[in-house]
Amino acid sequence: MPAPGIAFRKGTRTVAALPLADALLRSLGAAELDHPGGTLLAHLHRVRELLADWGARPDLQLAGLCHACYGTDGFATALLPPDRRAELAAAIGPAAEAIVHAYASCERAPTYRSLTAVPPLFHDRFAGRTYGPTPEQQRDFAELTAANELDLVRQDPEFRARYGPALLGLFTRFEPLLSAPARRTVAELLG
Asked: Which residues does the UniProt record annotate as the domain DUF6817 (predicted)?
């Protein structure tokens, strides 16, 4: 059952997905992997909780919890290879899994430069292609990126000192894509 304050409606599949996702992450070793602020599992839960605090919809919260499952351009350790997407989708649902896959597939440097361009471009490192994301995909990616990076800023003063100015620049560019609560957290932690 979700912690108090979580924006999940009782009786939805999403409530059941939290313990399923947590069990899957534990079975894949996330609780044993070191990560700033403790373990990878602790980081994943904090990212989901931050998204919940910002009022993110359940699918995005679940994606936040599982965002590192396939590894990322900035975190090479994959808990699951991308060819096992069905396992994650069974735990969190296909919509949340699609967000995780997109997040993991992102080639960060070119995507960060072009996500807010007209037209926006997303660079997929798995498929080796570039495509135009939908407005919802843009917002989901920006919000999840902010939650992930801001958790690291909170947990690791060295990370904040080293990357804080660049992150502030990135989130300033992403501002039209970020929710008002996310923008406030950016200002509080990096402004």
From this structure: 24-108
